[in-house]
Amino acid sequence: MTVDRANHVPVLIDEVIAALALHNGGTAVDGTFGAGGYTRAMLAAGAGRVIAFDRDPDAIEQGRSLVPNPRLTLINERFSQMDRVLAERGIEHVDAIALDIGVSSMQLDRADRGFSFSADGPLDMRMSKSGMTAADFLNSADEAEIVRVLREYGEEPRARSIARAIVAARPVERTAELAPIVRRAAGFRPGQKSDPATRTFQAIRIHLNAELDELEQGLEAAERALSPGGRLAVVTFHSLEDRIVKRFFRERSGGMPAGSRHRPVQQDPREPTFERVAKPVSPTERELAANPRSRSARLRSAIRTTTPAWKANVQ
Hints:
Elements: H1 13-20, E1 27-30, H2 37-44, E2 49-53, H3 57-62, E3 72-75, H4 82-88, E4 94-100, H5 105-108, H6 134-140, H7 143-154, H8 159-169, H9 175-186, H10 196-208, H11 211-225, E5 226-236, H12 239-252, E6 274-275, H13 285-290, E7 298-304
Parallel strand pairs: 1-2, 1-4, 2-3, 4-5
Antiparallel strand pairs: 5-7, 6-7
Helix pairs in contact: 4-11, 7-8, 7-10, 8-9, 9-10, 11-12
């Protein structure tokens, strides 16, 4: 199945390109290629070379039409592995990195991928198209595990009722089966502002693809891959993602939360690896009107210092 890539408008594209401050001859990474919107913009903005990553083989395959451009390299790999993959290709550091976190419009719009309940399809939700499917998880996990996933990744207040209903209805194989089960268990009524199935689908997808772990590891990989003065721009779409990015930039820029006489601030001995952390940017009213999916988007960006990257798990 092919997708009309021209209809997929990247969120906050102008703001992302401005934050990256690309220059002629520089090397940039698009860590989440998707429909290729950021990559095209990077090339147009003067990047000498763009290396684009995506764990979804469909995204890479459908992006092959861009590959004749000698300035572009497509790589079917998770962005958390970018520094390793770049090093294997002889690239020590890059000048700019963009990450657009979460599910792509291309994935949402394809019913056969199972990410959305807007059209019936198999309960798949695998970004890499390998491993356990959403149906596998829902039909094998115990009720307590489903409750944990819904609470942790969907912030779902009716998690226990929904999990109980899912277990009672098993096997659940399709998106059109799961969505009404969730709605009934959550007491949804037509006309309500939000559909509770959205939170459940989000939670299962995040769990299945280990998205929050991937984000944390990806930020650390970007820190290692960026050259001094390099720019990192990250677009998130919900609070769980944004908290991780906000905390990362705060820690890496030397900004610590305020302490008190009962709990004084613990100063980190490591030097800041990022500076000039920009204030978060949200879509304009014009962009919201043109692209309703951008309503929860938030961009955070910062500039890499000369300090070596922090070692993992150092206290």
